[in-house]
Write a structure and sequence with these properties.
alpha/beta; 36% helix; globular
């Protein structure tokens, strides 16, 4: 399975932007534009929840300082996979460094992951850093034998912050992310064994944003996220509008697809997207 995380994408803006790759995946798969993220709606807590499958009160990350993190008790889904099935291949590529490197140790993505690529988006420039991340990930997907992978793209969020808006520059950044998703999909489909494999591709974001480019509050524009799923496994899923979905459901869905069904001791808050919660 492949999880692609694109930082800070408002679903309503995504719907207005030319994104032919993601549009095609959504048309042939499963898509919701009304999932919910964490409180607060900022990257540290949200990415921690998307990677671990638990809410901030459990993983301990309440802001972008990452103080109080409890990743040892609530590891990212790739590390959990390594613990349960060390024979399977894991991969991650990111350009927001706190996900991979934190002072004092214990970043969200642990050293247990087989291959971890980290480039600094602030140092390289976010558009260029995303391109490097996508290219390195595409190369690995095409030539190695990963069973589970996570790819993070940070340019849309940083572009919106830099320009203080959700205008042209932000929308162009989302379109660029779609091209990067295209690179990853081309790499998957180029695999010599692709036709015999059962890939599930998940794409999501950590939070939305206000029109001034900010976020962190509890408005619908900040709290609403999208989740896209593509692959043969989605054919039997319930329609997106038939239940409620949350950011914590993403990693649990990933684990289920590769055959990991954590027991109650794992204390996961998310549920597989194949089994949506009923709307009250």
């Amino acid at each position: 399975m492949l999880l692609i995380g694109i930082d800070g994408v408002r679903p309503d803006v995504l719907a207005e932007v030319p994104t032919p790759v993601m549009d095609s995946l959504a048309a042939g798969g499963w898509y919701t534009a009304s999932a919910r993220t964490t409180t607060p709606s900022v990257s540290g807590p949200a990415w921690s929840s998307m990677l671990t499958g638990v809410w901030p009160e459990k993983h301990g990350v309440l802001d972008n300082g990452f103080e109080g993190r409890r990743y040892r008790e609530h590891p990212d889904f790739l590390t959990r996979l390594e613990r349960d099935r060390p024979d399977l291949g894991t991969f991650a590529a990111v350009d927001w460094m706190p996900l991979a490197v934190l002072e004092g140790g214990g970043p969200a993505l642990s050293g247990a992951i087989d291959t971890l690529v980290a480039v600094d988006g602030y140092e390289l420039g976010w558009a260029e850093a995303d391109s490097v991340v996508a290219a390195r990930a595409a190369e690995h997907l095409a030539e190695a034998d990963p069973d589970a992978a996570f790819v993070y793209l940070g340019n849309p969020d940083e572009t919106s912050h830099r320009h203080g808006s959700i205008g042209l520059e932000y929308r162009e950044a989302i379109t660029l992310s779609d091209r990067h998703v295209g690179w990853l999909m081309e790499a998957l489909r180029a695999r010599s064994s692709y036709e015999e494999e059962d890939w599930l591709v998940l794409i999501s974001t950590d939070h939305g944003r206000r029109e001034d480019g900010g976020h962190g509050g509890d408005s619908p524009e900040e709290m609403t996220i999208f989740i896209l799923a593509s692959g043969a496994a989605t054919r039997g899923w319930a329609a997106p509008g038939s239940g409620s979905t949350y950011i914590i459901d993403v990693p649990v869905t990933a684990l289920e697809h590769v055959g990991i069904l954590p027991d109650a001791d794992a204390e996961l808050d998310g549920e597989p997207l194949a089994r949506l919660r009923r709307i009250p």
